[in-house]
Design brief:
single chain; about 80 residues; alpha+beta; three-stranded antiparallel beta sheet; about 45% helix; elongated
Length: about 80
């Protein structure tokens, strides 16, 4: 019974570490890098679509690539650039 508990705790710890590494490794080092990547994405993939834009969210520390909604519908988030 103790062996199962120890293995379970180790397994949970390993999963937590893997999740933390994955979650924090996708961030940019600065707001400038996130901004540059967001606007680069627009230039490369959405240059013909005038309804696609980037916006800076200070509370969540990220740039958001979005497409404006049609007829007053909410915008669709295409990608997030966390820093």
């Amino acid at each position: 019974m103790k062996t199962f508990a120890i293995i379970s705790i180790i397994f949970i710890c390993v999963l937590s570490i893997v999740f933390a590494i994955f979650h924090f490794s996708n961030r940019y080092q600065s707001a400038f890098e996130a901004d540059q990547n967001c606007h680069s994405e627009i230039y490369i993939n959405y240059s013909e679509d005038s309804k696609v834009g980037c916006d800076h969210d200070l509370e969540t520390r990220q740039w958001i690539l979005y497409k404006e909604g049609i007829n007053g519908l909410p915008a669709n988030v295409l990608e997030r650039y966390k820093y």
